């Protein structure tokens, strides 16, 4: 049986609603991640520098990475820690404030059951000239639909994701990414979403998710 998902506006569930964006919890980490994001973007502008100049940059960056590795717990320990709380919001590749490859896209839920976030993407996410890579749009939508499920009801793993690219998605402009769970049928969850720029739909998505949660590391 398919249940249409209608928003819970009773107010009783409000207090238990999950946080969809991790609040800052360590200004040093946030500053380091912001610096690393700058490095990723700056490297894309530095292609004409000489091999000697860039070799010097590589030495400096490797020194930073060596320092971080020397002061980090083992991977197994870090995984346990990562998944100890709500889990996905600090390290995930879309909204995670600790993940340098995340744009980031902070997501917030609305009382109508939908969720939204705004991000402006730069060079690291380029596909066609001046536009977002289609795979990056798929990443943003897969994640947003998954989090919309977490917001509304049962969540799960993506089984199928269908995208329609209506028009090129611009770089360097605010993009609004939205998602909403539409139905739950046993373990099967159907969720929709889109990416808009200046009010125009660039990409729309329909996802089938299946209730399944891989065990958390412990
Ligand atoms: C990362 C998400 C989970 C972690 C969540 C953790 C905490 C929650 C907290 C917050 C949530 C917040 C954020 C989540 C964020 C992002 C979401 C990212 C999502 C992902 O990045 S996730 C990675 C990519 N994803 C995979 O890596 C899946 C690989 N895959 C499998 O693990 C299995 O394949 C599985 C589990 C999908 C199903 O396997 P299964 O054995 O459990 O179930 P089964 O096959 O019996 O299917 C049951 C019914 O679904 C139908 N069905 C299945 N697949 C279908 C398809 N493709 N098309 C049409 N129908 C399909 C069948 O036909 C049957 O239908 P019926 O009952 O009517 O016969």
Automatic annotation (TrEMBL):
Topology of the protein relative to the lipid bilayer: Peripheral membrane protein
Compartment list: Cell projection, Ruffle membrane; Cytoplasm; Membrane
Residue ranges occupied by any RHA1-ro05818 N-terminal helical domain in the UniProt entry: 20-77
One GO CC term on file: cytoplasm
UniProt region (Disordered), positions on chain: 1-27
Lineage start: Bacteria, Bacillati, Actinomycetota, Actinomycetes, Actinopolysporales
One GO MF term: hydrolase activity
Name of the molecule in the record: Acyl-coenzyme A thioesterase THEM4
Protein EC: 3.1.2.2
Single biological process term from Gene Ontology: fatty acid metabolic process
Pfam families: 4HBT, RHA1_ro05818_N
Keyword RNA-binding applies: no
Domain of life: Bacteria
Family: Belongs to the THEM4/THEM5 thioesterase family.
Chief site of localization: membrane
Reaction(s) the record says it catalyses: (5Z,8Z,11Z,14Z)-eicosatetraenoyl-CoA + H2O = (5Z,8Z,11Z,14Z)-eicosatetraenoate + CoA + H(+); decanoyl-CoA + H2O = decanoate + CoA + H(+); (9Z)-octadecenoyl-CoA + H2O = (9Z)-octadecenoate + CoA + H(+); octanoyl-CoA + H2O = octanoate + CoA + H(+)
PANTHER family per record: ACYL-COENZYME A THIOESTERASE THEM4
Ranges where the Thioesterase domain occurs: 130-189
Keyword set, alphabetical order: Apoptosis, Cell membrane, Cell projection, Cytoplasm, Fatty acid metabolism, Hydrolase, Lipid metabolism, Membrane, Transit peptide
């Amino acid at each position: 049986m398919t249940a249409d998902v209608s928003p819970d506006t009773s107010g009783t569930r409000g207090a238990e609603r999950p946080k969809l964006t991790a609040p800052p919890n360590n200004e040093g980490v946030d500053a380091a991640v912001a610096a690393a994001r700058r490095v990723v973007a700056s490297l894309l502008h530095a292609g004409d520098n000489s091999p000697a100049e860039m070799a010097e940059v590589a030495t400096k960056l490797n020194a930073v990475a060596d320092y971080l590795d020397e002061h980090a717990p083992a991977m197994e320990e870090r995984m346990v820690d990562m998944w100890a709380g709500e889990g996905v919001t600090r390290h995930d590749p879309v909204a995670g404030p600790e993940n340098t490859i995340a744009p980031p896209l902070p997501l917030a839920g609305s009382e109508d059951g939908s969720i939204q976030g705004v991000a402006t993407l730069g060079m690291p996410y380029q596909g066609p000239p001046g536009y977002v890579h289609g795979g990056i749009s798929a990443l943003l939508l897969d994640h947003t639909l998954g989090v919309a499920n977490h917001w509304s009801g049962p969540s799960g793993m993506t089984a199928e994701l269908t995208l329609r690219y209506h028009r090129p998605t611009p770089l360097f402009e605010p993009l609004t990414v939205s998602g909403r769970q539409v139905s739950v049928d046993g373990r099967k969850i159907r969720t929709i979403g889109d990416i808009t720029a200046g009010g125009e739909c660039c990409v729309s998505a329909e996802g089938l998710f299946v209730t399944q949660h891989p065990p958390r590391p412990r």
